[in-house]
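User: Please predict structures.

Assistant: First:
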Amino acid sequence: MLIGYARVSSVGQSLDLQIEALTAAGCEKIYAEKRSGRTAKDRPELARALDQLRPHDQLIVTRLDRLARSMGDLHAIVEQISAAGAGFRCLQQGGADTTSSTGKLMLAILGAVAEFENDIRRERQRDGIEKAKERGVYCGRPASIDVQRISHLSELGVGATAIARQLNISRASVYRLLKAGVWGHERESCGM
């Protein structure tokens, strides 16, 4: 049996192209999810697909980066596929096919290249963030806790547990902010 696996990183992305390609490749079952997961453990549909594998089945993906996020992750997944007596094939990187020795070699090489590309992407992102911080235009995500309200409620004598319940946040966050006593000053350095 040919089993397909499709994944995109965010809810706004579409799985349609991957599902079409896997269907055209003859996949009888397709598992799909919208998750970023750094490891296979973070992706429940991948776990389901791997659990379905039987001897002589094949797990098929459109691209290696849809299956694994690192070489370690790739090797662990391929080992699990092999332990089930199944094979693995990647459509867009056609040489990645564990049913032959050459395919296994190509899989290792392509996996290393994919990990290298991910590292370069993360490095570029970090560089961009640092440059934005230097220009004073990057401040991280906006604060999601109303610290002024915590301060006001505390001044009224409301306890940390009641504040946390009222604002739907953790009690630890309330204690941390009350202890810091810095009401919004950390955002001022970003021009907010």
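Second:
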Amino acid sequence: MKIKLLSLVLLSFFVFSSCKKETKENTQSTSTTKQEVKQTEHQGQADVKLSEGEQANALQVAKSIKDFSTLVTAIEAAGVQDAVVNAGPLTIFAPVNAAFDKLPKGTVENLLKPENKVKLAFILKNHVAPANYPIKQLKKEAKKGRKLYMASGEYLTVENKDGKIYVGGAPILKSVKVSNGWIHVIDQVLVPAPKK
């Protein structure tokens, strides 16, 4: 009787410990899968690394230039990274840090708050034209009196004043060719006028 009881206790112990081990392995497997999903969840086109000899896209160039640090912070806060690195072609009118400094005090800090993400995204999209506009093309657009359609749904006026190109009233200071289009450096933030 004692041997039967002892055998039953040992059998129960082995069954229990093997179930516990299996549950632990399943839990570890599940947590590993969750980690893998979590890691890939936040990776989009913006997280793709450059291959050797490959030309940088607009976001990669902006991240490499210190004077675009506020713009990069805004792009990330608004969650529009993938829109800025898509295959394009696209043209970005990129405000330097000093352009953001010209805004009324507290504006940038307020826009970077999570509750203002949609508003910030709209403002940033007002700096992106879903087309290829090198300076030569912008001069043609200005001569024809055309406006540029922006990713925000708004239109910006292009002007040629004494040989210098202005978009939305902001002069283009410098232009950089990127893999997915053009970056034109400006010293103003192109905030769309409020709807009436």
